Amino acid sequence: MAIPQDLLDILACPDCKTAVVLEGERLVCGKAECRRAYPIREDIPIMMIEESRPLERSEWDKVMATRPTPAGT
Ligand SMILES: [Zn+2]
């Protein structure tokens, strides 16, 4: 994967400050009430609220079901 784990570990949702989860070509906020997905462009995570879009609850559930729960809340 192009995004190093140590970078992922320090990335957080700019909206709610929750850790994000890598899912394909995007980073998904781990907070159920937020569920924002941030795009990755040319290996650069775009951590901007204006660039994100909130996932449907069912879609977010699917992402989180396949990933370990992000550290912290
Ligand atoms: Zn968030």
Structural features, described:
- With 73 residues, the chain is of the alpha+beta class.
- It has one domain: N-terminal domain of TfIIb, CATH 2.20.25.
- It contains two helices and five strands; from the N terminus they run αβββββα.
- It has helices spanning 5-10, 57-65; strands at 20-23, 26-29, 36-41, 44-45, 53-54.
- Strands 1, 2, 3, 4 and 5 form a five-stranded antiparallel sheet that branches.
- The model has no long low-confidence stretch (mean pLDDT 90).
- The structure holds zinc ion (ZN).
Write the layout of secondary structure elements.
Blueprint: H1 5-10, E1 20-23, E2 26-29, E3 36-41, E4 44-45, E5 53-54, H2 57-65
Antiparallel strand pairs: 1-2, 2-3, 3-4, 3-5
The structure holds zinc ion.
Query: Using only CA atoms, what is the Rg?
Result: 11 Å
* Oligomeric nature of the chains: single chain
The end-to-end span amounts to 25 Å
Question: Which architecture does the CATH hierarchy give at level 2?
Answer: Single Sheet
Order of helices and strands: HEEEEEH
CATH class: Mainly Beta
Strand content: 15-25%
Low-confidence stretches: none
Gross morphology is: globular
What ions, cofactors and ligands are bound?
zinc ion
- Helix run count: 2
